[in-house]
């Protein structure tokens, strides 16, 4: 890591790529709300608008040292030509996994937020004065999916790849690690549109369109292979742009493949077809395009019932660096039941890793879904969801876990502040989670 670029625990103002100023915070949160941070004694019942006062103090958290994390001397990666910093990231994740600590991650943390009025682009930073240790984005954002260029950026000639790369560069300077999912479009739909100025139009969210026998047709020899390679070229361009700043990226390909809601799901291709597609994609990015700053994550949906189930569509040790799963606690499911399933799944993954070159273990996507959507603004059942998950994961050796995105004030998986004093009803629970010794955020990374 570039320790000389870190700002340490005393956070200074920084301008992120989106052109938004990040306010100066102290060790215990913004000065404007210091008077409200008195532990335990305040009335934290929701007000007439449903918000509560943030009364928990954000406590100083020490940076991890080499004594806290025993980094393995070496790791076996899918890319034997991986850059030194990519290798270091893998060693760091494995070291954290073996420690009592867990890295906290949040999808889209640096370019989506529920608190639209705040200057900082990160709800996590507004909540606790620190960034998540891991921030996710999706490759669809690079094709007019998750965000757009402003008129000023368009006038400057900025591309979406450049914009996302700048966001990652700014986050990297704060210690944030990055992972990217890939909600790839349905390439049969893309091909039907034809080309414009010689290029395919990958825009629009067509991932859940499952018709078209896409997996078979995008492989070499298939009529959609050229269309697919164009998309992989875009992914490779992003990887190379990050490589210019020596930034590694965890790439999560064809996730939740045991379900059938995406075109690469179990009902739409055989295990053999899925494995061949995953391998072809890694080989194209790694060997054809020469991208050497990717770690590859394999993450079906959870819970994971057995090693045999996990192995059915596993691409192979030579193509995977991180093994994980995606799982959400849903309406009507108790904390105890959900945590039992997560714990049992992690036991399966650790057994699997022990037999497969000690792959890194992660909970690649999770959160609390209420009313079939996301967190409730009022009356959430997750009064101790974050602290409960931290206690569970600290007992099961996990490198990181990542909650899903705060898209706006209606769809969010992390509590957020609405002004200097008030926030979502789980805001004090989230501060308690941050204060736990085992939860690691960006500025605590070694």
Structural overview:
This protein has about 450 residues and is an alpha/beta fold. It has one domain: Alpha-Beta Barrel (TIM Barrel), CATH 3.20.20.80. Helices cover about 30% and strands about 15% of the residues. It has 12 helices and 15 strands. The chain has helices at about 85-95, 125-130, 150-155, 160-175, 185-195, 215, 225-245, 270-290, 305-310, 335-355, 385-395, 425-435; strands spanning about 15, 20, 50-55, 100-105, 135-140, 175-180, 195, 200, 250, 295-300, 320-330, 360-370, 400-405, 420-425, 440. The chain has an 8-stranded parallel β-barrel, surrounded by 4 helices. A two-stranded antiparallel ribbon has the order 1-2. α11 (about 385-395) packs parallel to α12 (about 425-435).
Summarize the structure.
By secondary structure, this protein is α/β, with parallel strands linked by helices. The chain contains 12 helices and 15 strands. The protein has one domain (3-444): TIM Barrel, CATH 3.20.20.80.
Topology:
Blueprint: E1 14-15, E2 21-22, E3 52-53, H1 84-97, E4 102-107, H2 123-128, E5 134-138, H3 151-156, H4 160-173, E6 177-181, H5 187-193, E7 195-196, E8 199-200, H6 214-217, H7 225-243, E9 249-252, H8 271-288, E10 294-298, H9 307-311, E11 322-329, H10 335-355, E12 360-368, H11 385-396, E13 400-403, E14 422-423, H12 427-435, E15 439-440
């Amino acid at each position: 890591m570039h320790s000389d670029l870190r700002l340490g625990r005393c956070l200074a103002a920084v301008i992120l790529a989106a052109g938004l100023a990040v306010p100066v915070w102290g060790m215990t949160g913004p000065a404007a709300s210091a008077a409200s941070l008195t532990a335990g004694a305040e009335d934290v019942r929701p007000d007439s608008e449903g918000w509560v006062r943030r009364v928990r103090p954000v406590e100083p958290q020490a940076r991890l040292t080499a004594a806290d994390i025993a980094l393995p001397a070496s790791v076996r990666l899918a890319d034997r030509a991986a850059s030194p910093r990519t290798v270091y990231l893998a060693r760091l994740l494995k070291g954290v996994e073996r420690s009592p600590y867990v890295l906290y991650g949040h999808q889209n943390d640096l370019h989506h937020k529920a608190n639209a009025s705040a200057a900082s682009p990160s709800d996590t930073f507004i909540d606790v004065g620190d960034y998540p240790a891991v921030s996710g984005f999706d490759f669809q954002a690079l094709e007019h999916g998750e965000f757009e260029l402003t008129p000023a950026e368009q006038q400057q000639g900025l591309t979406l790849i450049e914009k996302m790369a700048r966001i990652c560069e700014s986050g990297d300077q704060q210690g944030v690690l990055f992972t990217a999912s890939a909600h790839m479009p349905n390439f049969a739909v893309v091909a039907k549109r034809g080309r414009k100025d010689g290029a395919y139009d990958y825009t629009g969210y067509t991932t859940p369109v499952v018709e078209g026998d896409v997996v078979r047709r995008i492989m070499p020899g298939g009529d959609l292979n050229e269309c697919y390679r164009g998309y992989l070229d875009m992914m490779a361009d992003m990887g190379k742009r990050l490589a210019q700043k020596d930034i590694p990226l965890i790439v999560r390909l064809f996730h939740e493949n045991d379900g059938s809601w995406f075109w690469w799901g179990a009902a739409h291709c055989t295990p053999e077809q899925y494995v061949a597609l995953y391998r072809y994609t890694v080989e194209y990015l790694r060997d054809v395009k020469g991208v050497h700053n990717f770690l590859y994550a394999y993450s079906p949906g959870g819970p994971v019932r057995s090693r045999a189930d996990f192995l059915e569509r596993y691409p192979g040790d030579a193509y995977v660096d991180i093994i994980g799963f995606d799982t959400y606690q849903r309406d009507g499911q108790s904390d105890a039941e959900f945590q039992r399933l997560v714990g049992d799944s992690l036991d399966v993954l650790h057994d699997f890793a022990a037999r497969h070159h000690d792959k890194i273990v992660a909970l690649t996507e999770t959160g609390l879904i209420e009313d079939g959507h996301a967190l409730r603004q009022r009356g959430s059942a997750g009064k101790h969801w974050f602290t409960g998950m931290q206690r569970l994961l600290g007992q099961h050796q996990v490198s990181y876990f990542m909650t899903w995105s705060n898209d706006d004030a209606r769809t969010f998986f992390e509590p957020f502040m609405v002004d200097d004093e008030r926030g979502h009803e789980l805001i004090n629970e989230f501060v308690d989670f941050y204060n736990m010794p085992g939860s690691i955020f960006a500025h605590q990374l070694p």
